[in-house]
Design goal:
By secondary structure, the protein is α/β, with parallel strands linked by helices. Helix 2 packs parallel to helix 10. The protein starts with 7 loop residues before the first strand and ends in a 6-residue tail after the last strand.
């Protein structure tokens, strides 16, 4: 049997997947080549061989694709976060539309997929960063598929409010090491300019924490709160359950869809506020909420989606979220915006479903919805289910499950909240299938 590992091949890249890998075929076997794009002709070396596919490394480029551009980040290949950094942005939007279409085809659903919506802001849009800190106090990002830290002096995705704080933290290596800091978490409010800084430590002991905080506050008046998060657990979960406020109130405030929102460190809030507003405006159009409707917002976070969709409507809003801190924010946000017809409760959105709903809003994590939730919601027979998803694959799977319960969707709308990365947000509305008279 022929062995392919460590062999060299001249290939044509015929497609690009959502991981930013170019796709070629060698003797009929699918071959994934990072750093390439549809239309490239190149020399590659096979570095992994399996029965169903090869993984190869780009050795040299013979003919560059029309979709190829020069990456403007010196560490993008090692970091692996911006998988489309070497690809023309217009083509990236096409790839994301195709990604959504392919996800539905895999589960046997043919659905109209709209063009990917973007505000063309592909840099400095990210309002949240989480930096791992090495044992020596160096901060950066983990290299792709490793725990090796890649130092990055100027991440092109992070907000302009965050970048100077990140830069100063890189000069505080000794202090970070002394304090036993495991991660640095920074969140910025786009409209208000307020910034939250969170030091994640393994133990409650935080040597030099107040000194570091004072140093940063003297330089950055935009810092509204500084928090120590304690996470003694091993593993990939960054934040622990316990927070200790070092400075400020423990939250920042931002404005979205004409409303003001408090955001705490544990609370979910979209990382691209400008595109989130476009997405929520679309969700409101799809929901088409009427006066008197009961709207159930599951996985509601700090209440942004539900309150944005229900804004100006005489309806009743119920939000459910498993994170108590987020529900506290949601209740505060309802008062902050004068929303009297909203209730928010702590609970597992897969289980804490009310007995009736006219419109349901879903915005689950990447794993999507539990089958029990789909069965329960279908039995309530809401007029509409608006589903916002950050994972086209689980969205397609869940739409198929809803279709088996009598719901259908005509069009899915991709929204690019994560330019230059492989992630894609999407929204659609599910309605009950028309019953054919016998």
């Amino acid at each position: 049997m022929k062995k392919y590992k460590n062999t060299f091949h001249r290939v044509n890249i015929t497609d690009t997947n959502n991981l930013g890998f170019g796709i070629a075929r060698i003797d009929g076997i699918v071959t994934f080549v990072p750093g390439t794009v549809t239309g490239d002709e190149c020399e590659v070396k096979i570095i992994k061989e399996t029965k169903s596919y090869f993984a190869a490394r780009l050795e040299s480029l013979a003919v560059a694709s029309q979709y190829r551009i020069l990456s403007d980040c010196p560490v993008s290949v090692r970091c692996g976060g911006c998988v489309y950094r070497h690809i023309d942005y217009e083509y990236e939007k096409q790839l994301k539309k195709q990604y959504v279409k392919n996800a539905f085809r895999k589960v046997g659903i043919e659905i109209d997929v709209a063009d990917t919506v973007s505000d063309s802001n592909i840099s400095a849009y990210r309002n949240k960063v989480q930096y791992p800190v090495s044992a020596e106090g160096e901060i950066g990002y983990y290299a792709n598929h490793t725990h090796d830290i890649v130092k990055c002096d100027n991440c092109l995705l992070e907000s302009k409010n965050i970048a100077p704080i990140s830069s100063m933290l890189r000069t505080m290596q000794h202090e970070l090491k002394k304090g036993g800091v495991r991660h640095v978490y920074i969140r910025s409010a786009e409209k208000t300019g307020q910034v939250m800084l969170c030091f994640v430590t393994k133990s409650e002991k935080f040597d030099g924490g107040y000194e570091m905080t004072t140093k940063l506050l003297n330089e950055f008046p935009s810092l509204r709160t500084v928090i120590q998060n304690i996470n003694p657990a091993e593993g990939n979960v960054i934040l622990g359950k316990k927070n200790r406020i070092i400075y400020g109130d423990g939250y920042i405030e931002d404005e979205l869809c004409g409303q003001r929102f408090k955001i705490a460190p544990m609370s979910f809030y979209q990382v691209n506020a400008g595109m989130a507003q476009k997405l929520y405006e679309k969700a409101a159009l799809l929901a088409d909420i009427g006066d008197g409707d009961t709207v159930v917002d599951l996985f509601c976070g700090v209440g942004t989606v539900g309150m944005s969709v229900c804004r100006g409507k005489k309806c009743n809003l119920l939000g459910v979220e498993i994170v108590p801190e987020a529900i506290k924010n949601a209740k505060d946000n309802a008062k902050l915006n004068g929303v009297e017809n909203a209730r928010f409760t702590v609970g597992d959105a897969n289980e804490a479903v009310p007995e009736m709903a006219d419109v349901v809003i879903l915005d689950p994590p990447r794993k999507g919805c539990d089958e029990r939730l789909i069965a329960t919601l279908s039995s309530l027979s809401p007029k509409k289910i608006v589903y916002i998803s950050c994972n086209p694959d689980t969205l397609a799977r869940d739409v198929k499950r809803f279709s088996e319960k009598g719901y259908t969707a005509d069009t899915v709308y991709p929204y690019d909240l994560f330019p230059r990365t492989g992630h894609c947000e999407a929204v659609l509305v599910l309605t009950e299938k028309a019953v054919t008279e016998k």
